[in-house]
Amino acid sequence: MRLEYPADYKEFASRYVSIKIADFLYVRNLGMHSSGQERDYVLDAVSWLHEFNQRGHIDILDNAGNETQVPAFQLYPEPFGLYPWGTTDNGDMCFWLTHPGSQNWTIVIKGNGLWWHHPGSLTDFLIKLASNTLACPLFPDNLELDSLPLFVESD
Question: How many CB atoms neighbour CB 107 within 10 A?
Fold first, then answer.
């Protein structure tokens, strides 16, 4: 179940145990656990998503908030499967959409029965979110991204 994480994430994770961003978004440090603990976390995090796969489709939002029905994402360890990297205070789940070659992994957020996909890397997503050049339509509009501290090491 071990896999090669994207280089940007490995660099990020080497600096922080885990991070809470804007008192809302938690980025887990996945490499700090034993492979058995990590495997259990991943399997638990994706197990409840099987119901969406059984339906065969999901409702996904574009950046403007328009909803479209698309085929459901695969779940890791399937090829192109979702792999969890974080959560939010609202109960949203944050995933990578894995691809061959971890440098191609992109971001998927699941919340409130809807999905959203960002075609960039994790650090691209975090930088754009922090600089207010990207807004995830599933996240609250009132995130205090311009208040300090933006990044806080969490327990």
Answer: 22
Structure tokens at 143: 């995130």
- Give strand pairing partners of 69: 59
Alpha helices in the chain (DSSP H): 7-15, 35-47, 50-55, 122-130
Question: What is the pTM (predicted TM-score) of this model?
Answer: 0.87
The separation between CA 102 and the C-alpha centre of its own chain, rounded to angstroms, equals: 14
Report yes or no: 105 and 112 within 8 Å, Cβ to Cβ: no
Q: How far apart are CA 45 and CA 26, in angstroms?
A: 14
Angle among Cα 48, 99, 30 to the nearest 5 degrees reads 60
Lowest mean pLDDT among 47-61, 68-82, 94-108: 47-61
CA-based Rg of the chain, rounded to a whole angstrom? 15
144 by DSSP, 3-state: which?
coil
What letter represents residue 8's amino acid?
D
